[in-house]
């Protein structure tokens, strides 16, 4: 039968792993949102070089597995003299990868707005930045929140991959504990539960935000 | 309407042409709109009415010729031999006294009627939220929507939405307003309330360029009616000249089609 008695003494270590997972997810998601917004603006700009550049960017980060990106930046960059500490490398890799998806999610949102809304904004004298900030973004956020929440959840799960470059987050801690206690079942089950709780929290939070925004205006 | 013809025109279009790729949709258009003048643009579908209006708003770049708004060149720098686009700031400066109302209203759905009207007051005219709201309420009252200030566009009828769009434009105190078929997207019973607001504006001395299929409105309100056909101005004159005088066969045909479509009693 399952024996969870070894779980209790392991809790502090496990907790540190959870903290690392949360820290990494939040940092990477923030980075992804910022870069994604910038990339999306560039992707939708009038400049052809910018558009091509962002297209390449998106296809690279969507086309190469995160695991390979992590390996490349952690093990290969130092070979050409660029030293990359594990945690920043992980945040940047996960963040950039996520930003590629976020770029596309936001692009869909911006392109679903009728061009007429922008023209009426131009005609009352709003400048480009004001149009993005006050006319387009609020609508885009509302339209894309379900997809962005999805992306956040995928990101939390993808963060388990960074264990390969030696960062001790939830998955790595679980691996260690399971091996040293000879109890894979108990510890992996616990990890599964923790991931599930983390992602359910995001999901509930997302629904709450969605409801709040929608209650303030009707489309 | 008492026109002050000695004043310089608010809008002046000189030998303006517009191409989309290789097709020319406007050919050598000349227009002058004086202060307080109401000009109606009529013509068959595809004749270039919207394109002309959008060129005057510089939502489309015209290909050749000149457009002046209150004496200032619109959209291009003409000091050098090669014509160059002006900066966005300069463009917005020349356009600052121009309002536009669209067929599809183009309201911002995430803002209330009041929000739509006050947004530019706060962001562009830099009024405080309180001043803007005060002004917004006053203008909404003027278009008959005092009770609807806190409604979102989706909660308003088409006619009400279009009146909000007019109020939004009016809030910026334009010296000329452009209307592109403002009633064409409306149910017939809602057309009247929007036309009434436009008539009131005309009476108050607003300079207006109106693309419309409402011949009744053109006949009653316009100082000048311009008939556009295949990108060219075929005739320009008072409503009386256009509707009752000698006219080119294309205009004759256009008006006859209109009569046939709208006749319900012989
Ligand atoms: N963006 C565009 N690209 C290419 N051709 C265009 C574009 N916009 C308009 N046209 C063409 O220019 C011509 C004039 O169009 P415009 O929309 O100005 O006509 P209109 O008089 O407003 O017609 P309607 O009464 O149907 O609104 C049409 O032949 C149209 O197909
Ligand atoms: Mg049109």
TrEMBL record, chain A:
Chain ranges of the ABC transmembrane type-1 domain: 18-206
Superkingdom field: Bacteria
Originating organism: Marinomonas colpomeniae
Name by which UniProt lists this protein: Amino acid ABC transporter permease
Record family assignment: Belongs to the binding-protein-dependent transport system permease family. HisMQ subfamily.
Pfam families xrefs: BPD_transp_1 (PF00528)
Annotated SUPFAM superfamilies: MetI-like
PROSITE patterns: ABC_TM1 (PS50928)
Compartments reported by the entry: Cell inner membrane; Cell membrane
UniProt topology in membrane: Multi-pass membrane protein
Keyword terms of this UniProt record: Amino-acid transport, Cell membrane, Membrane, Transmembrane, Transmembrane helix, Transport
Coiled-coil stretches noted in the UniProt entry, renumbered to this chain: none
Segments traversing the membrane: 20-44, 56-80, 188-209
């Amino acid at each position: 039968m399952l024996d969870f008695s070894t779980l209790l003494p392991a809790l502090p270590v496990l907790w540190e792993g959870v903290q690392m997972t949360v820290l990494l997810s939040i940092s990477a998601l923030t980075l992804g949102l910022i870069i994604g917004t910038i990339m999306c603006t560039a992707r939708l700009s009038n400049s052809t070089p910018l558009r091509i550049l962002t297209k390449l960017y998106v296809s690279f980060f969507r086309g190469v597995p995160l695991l390979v990106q992590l390996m490349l930046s952690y093990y290969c960059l130092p070979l050409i003299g660029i030293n990359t500490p594990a945690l920043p490398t992980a945040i940047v890799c996960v963040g950039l990868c996520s930003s590629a998806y976020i770029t596309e999610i936001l692009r869909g949102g911006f392109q679903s707005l009728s061009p007429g809304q922008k023209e009426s904004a131009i005609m009352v004298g709003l400048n480009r930045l004001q149009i993005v900030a006050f006319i387009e973004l609020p609508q885009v956020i509302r339209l894309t929140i379900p997809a962005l929440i999805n992306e956040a959840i995928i990101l939390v799960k993808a963060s388990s991959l960074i264990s390969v470059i030696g960062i001790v987050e939830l998955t790595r801690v679980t691996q260690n504990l399971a091996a040293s206690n000879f109890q894979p079942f108990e510890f992996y089950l616990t990890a599964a539960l923790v991931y599930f709780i983390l992602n359910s929290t995001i999901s509930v939070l997302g629904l709450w935000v969605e409801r709040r925004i929608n209650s303030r205006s009707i489309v | 309407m008492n026109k002050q013809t000695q004043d310089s025109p608010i809008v002046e279009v000189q030998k303006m042409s517009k191409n989309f790729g290789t097709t020319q949709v406007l050919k050598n258009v000349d227009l002058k709109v004086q202060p307080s003048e109401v000009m109606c643009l009529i013509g068959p579908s595809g004749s270039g009415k919207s394109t002309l209006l959008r060129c005057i708003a510089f939502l489309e770049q015209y290909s050749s010729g000149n457009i002046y708004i209150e004496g200032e060149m619109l959209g291009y720098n003409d000091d050098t031999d090669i014509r160059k686009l002006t900066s966005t700031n300069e463009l917005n400066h020349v356009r600052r006294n121009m309002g536009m109302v669209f067929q599809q209203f183009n309201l911002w759905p995430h803002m209330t009627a009041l929000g739509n009207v006050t947004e530019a007051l706060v962001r562009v005219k830099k009024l405080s939220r309180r001043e803007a709201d005060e002004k917004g309420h006053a203008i909404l009252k003027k278009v008959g929507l005092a009770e609807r200030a806190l409604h979102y566009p989706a909660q308003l009828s088409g006619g009400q939405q279009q009146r909000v769009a007019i109020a939004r434009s009016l809030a910026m105190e334009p010296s000329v307003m452009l209307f592109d078929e403002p009633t064409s997207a409306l149910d017939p019973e809602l057309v009247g309330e929007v036309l009434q607001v436009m008539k009131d504006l005309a009476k108050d001395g607003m300079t207006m360029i109106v693309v419309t299929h409402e011949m009744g409105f053109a006949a009653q309100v316009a100082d000048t009616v311009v008939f556009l056909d295949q990108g060219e101005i075929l005739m320009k004159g008072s409503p009386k000249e256009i509707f009752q005088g000698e006219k080119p066969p294309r205009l004759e045909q256009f008006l006859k089609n209109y009569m046939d479509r709208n006749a319900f009693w012989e």
